[in-house]
Structure to design on (414 residues):
């Protein structure tokens, strides 16, 4: 057969042949011009190189897949070991098939966040629940471990109840009590309710919510056998029932420490921008402690009074620079609380009390902030007994002694 120099691979012997005029030859046909030979040699080299890179690519991808699989297996083993080590829990463990069944195959979605989606569900006894299905690729399992460890130890009217959890291979979910009115966030910001389709909360209701949250945080700090530092107190994590009774939720960033324990090392700054205490992201301001939650609480109740977020994503300034200044400006005007929606004298008194408490809570130095127990006393006391605190200014205090590179969580209760 005359192939006119067609070359290819022999499937039987895996050798490279050229089908020449009289018979097959290896690599080239006799009598071909040197240029043609060069082209054939180049073709052979390119084909071989391409095949080599392809095989190498498959090996690297396969190794990466194996490493990823091993990493996920290790994470799952760590989570499982934690669940076994903490012993019997007061909450029930569910299979993912149970979660799918209780949510009717995830039919009714209530909301979503960075850690996962929330669906409405119903237990076998007919009890309505909110089911948070965590994203499979989210973190190393720490948020899930924190949530189960923290909230399963609590029992307080102002802390959301965890009914159960699911840890089934890569699937993780948390089953909470159902809170009819959702998060506080949607009720306090004017820009999220321009048409006033969401019911307006009057100052008496806002004050009741603020007091309830304070009691919940104080319980986490002092009422449990194990102290819980939440590290993410903000309106989004405050849930309201059908009567607008507040409950603290989302313990994914929380830290546990015993009542006698003085220091817990943590390598990362945690929380949400606008609510993070200065010492959490810069240890020059002091030690990270329960007072860090106090700061977050203070920013939150200032937002509740002002009806605006303390962080404006459209500008480059941080909340610590301009939001407290805006609050101080309204406070110093004294009689002009119309900007804060206070109309009656009683509303003005409530607004002033919440502002003063909030400003005390966001003092730069942790030692200048009140404990949550003191916050409750201030809220329940007379507004006349409250002094205007020093103006909130962020400035790095001089360092008096060298500190380690890690942040430390200490017990500050005074």
């Amino acid at each position: 057969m005359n192939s006119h120099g067609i070359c290819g691979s022999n499937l039987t012997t895996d050798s490279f042949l050229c089908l020449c005029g009289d018979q097959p030859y290896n690599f080239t046909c006799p009598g071909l011009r040197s240029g043609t030979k060069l082209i054939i040699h180049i073709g052979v080299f390119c084909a071989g190189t391409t095949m080599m890179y392809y095989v190498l690519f498959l090996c690297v991808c396969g190794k990466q897949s194996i490493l990823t699989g091993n990493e996920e297996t290790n994470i799952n083993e760590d989570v499982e070991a934690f669940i076994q080590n903490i012993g019997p829990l007061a909450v029930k463990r569910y299979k993912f098939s149970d979660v799918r069944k209780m949510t009717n195959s995830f039919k009714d979605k209530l909301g979503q966040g960075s850690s996962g989606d929330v669906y409405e569900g119903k237990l076998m006894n007919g009890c309505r629940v909110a089911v948070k299905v965590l994203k499979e690729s989210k973190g190393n399992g720490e948020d899930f471990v924190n949530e189960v460890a923290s909230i399963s130890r609590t029992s307080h009217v102002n802390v959301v109840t965890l009914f159960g959890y699911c840890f089934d291979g890569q699937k993780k979910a948390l089953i909470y009590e159902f809170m009819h009115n959702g998060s506080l966030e949607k009720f306090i910001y004017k820009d999220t309710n321009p048409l006033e389709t969401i019911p307006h909360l009057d100052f008496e209701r806002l004050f009741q919510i603020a007091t309830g949250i304070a009691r919940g945080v104080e319980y986490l700090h002092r009422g449990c056998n194990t102290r819980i530092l939440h590290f993410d107190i903000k309106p989004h994590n405050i849930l309201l029932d059908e009567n607008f009774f507040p409950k603290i939720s989302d313990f994914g960033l929380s830290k546990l420490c015993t009542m006698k324990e003085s220091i817990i090392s943590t390598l990362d700054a945690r929380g949400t921008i606008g609510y993070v205490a200065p010492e959490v992201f810069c240890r020059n301001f002091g030690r990270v402690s329960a007072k860090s939650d106090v700061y977050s609480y203070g920013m939150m109740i200032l937002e509740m009074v002002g009806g605006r977020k303390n962080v404006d994503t459209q500008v480059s300034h941080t909340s610590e620079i301009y939001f407290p200044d805006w609050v101080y400006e309204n406070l110093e005007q004294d009689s002009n609380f119309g900007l804060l929606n206070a109309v009656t004298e009683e509303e003005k008194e409530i607004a002033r009390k919440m502002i003063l408490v909030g400003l005390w809570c966001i003092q730069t130095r942790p030692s200048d902030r009140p404990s949550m127990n003191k916050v409750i006393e201030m809220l329940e006391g007379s507004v006349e007994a409250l002094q205007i605190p020093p103006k909130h200014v962020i400035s790095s205090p001089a360092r008096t002694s060298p500190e380690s590179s890690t942040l430390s969580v200490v017990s500050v209760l005074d």
